[in-house]
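Lines hold sequence, tokenised fold; shown next:
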Amino acid sequence: MAGYDDRDGFIWMDGKLVDWRGANVHILTHALHYASAVFEGERCYNGKIFKSTEHSERLRMSGELLDMPLPFSVAEINAAKEAVLKANNLTDAYVRAIAWRGAGEDMGVASKRNPIRLAVACWTWGSYYGDAKMKGAKLDIAKWKRPSPETIPHAAKAAGLYMICTMSKHAAEAKGCSDAMMMDYRGYVAEATGANIFFVKDGEVHTPKPDCILNGITRQTVIGMLRDMQIVVHERHILPEELEGFEQCWLTGTAAEVTPVGQIGDYAFEVGDLTKRVSAEYERLVRA
């Protein structure tokens, strides 16, 4: 496919639809230099964005956590997403909303006088992990750790927090892996580079506490599904040596959806019945 800067279609920017190739910002945009940007990744199924309002609410919350209050309401953000889907004639798509501090009077660390901008784009996007959706993803173990919540606003979906994720995923791909699992600053299992992680042992599910990682919307959805199925879910700190005792593993995220994991480092997992059931139930839910 063509690069993301060279496609036909439209992108919503600051209240109006613009030609895809013309959706540009100035080189002195504050976010480009200082990562003053927050974003959401969403999926539209059969013409309906799954949990659109929850994503728009989190976008605004992320902006507030970065001292960057968005000048658009939840209703306006929702309407922008619908407008860009309609303009591009898409009913099944990935939707990316991003807000950032643009170019303005400030070009240092402080940027109070610069405008806060918003854009929404959408495109067709298949399985994030390719055929791993069926056979199970292979994960490396990253050398980088998720930072302490005393050092970052971990509840924000902020661009700058993904720098070590990009580095970890590149290192994993160089080893023939789909992704990398990261530990947190204390040495507990945290997440993959762009997805939350779940494990199964003796019919019960274990997942890291989101006390220094993003509490994903898909993560919350899957926990609710599991509890509706009468499956016990433990949200807790997980030590890396526990990986040997887990039987199944999967990742969750808007892009990842529910993706089984077959291997993390030297540890192997089966794509078992519960993993398949959760994946199928999630697919049914988002298309309901």
In short: The mean pLDDT is 97.
